[in-house]
Design a protein that fits this description.
The chain is built from four helices and six strands. The chain is of the alpha+beta class. The protein has one domain. The radius of gyration is 16 Å and the shape is globular. A hairpin with a 4-residue loop joins strand 1 and strand 2. It has a six-stranded mixed β-sheet.
Length: about 160
């Protein structure tokens, strides 16, 4: 992922993931902040492969692995003799806000959509569809973090 504009730490316009039958592609933007990271995962327009919704577990895993290797997400160091060890996926989930976005003209909602996606201890996703304003207010990101150049979201361009 490359460094980009103010307020956004990383952006990858063609993030690759394991799709169904072929390699999938989506848009990923991240903002690293104290205590964790906010990830915006967007479906591309004019893309007819596996959707970000259907591949969310794989995309999440790939992004989290990359962010962990880069030190943006930290796992606690535990001693091998501690018997009550937290599940690493719970530790990661506590540090990550995952936003799934479908732009206008893509997905089920004609005007586009935003969903906060959470993962339980079995890594099963749960979608909570919310407004852009709700995300800005509750997730501590600027509205500009959610605004993406339409060309960046068009797979055909």
């Amino acid at each position: 992922m490359s460094n980009v504009a103010k307020g956004i730490d990383r952006e990858e316009r063609r993030f690759r993931f394991a799709g169904f039958g072929s390699v999938g592609v989506c848009f990923i933007r991240t903002k690293v902040r104290q205590g964790g990271v906010v990830v915006l995962c967007a479906q591309l327009k004019n893309y007819y492969g596996t959707s970000v919704t259907n591949a969310v577990e794989d995309i999440y895993g790939r992004v989290i692995n990359q962010l962990t290797k880069e030190g943006a997400i930290k796992l606690p160091v535990t001693k091998w003799w501690f018997f009550k060890r937290k599940d690493p996926s719970e530790e990661i989930a506590a540090q990550v806000i995952w936003i799934e976005h479908y732009p206008q003209g893509a997905g089920m909602f004609p005007n586009g959509s935003y969903a906060l996606v959470s993962f339980d201890s079995q890594m099963s996703p749960v979608w909570n569809y919310v407004s852009k304003e709700y995300i800005v207010r509750e997730c501590g990101v600027e509205e500009s973090f959610l605004e993406i150049d339409p060309e960046a979201l068009d797979y055909a361009v």
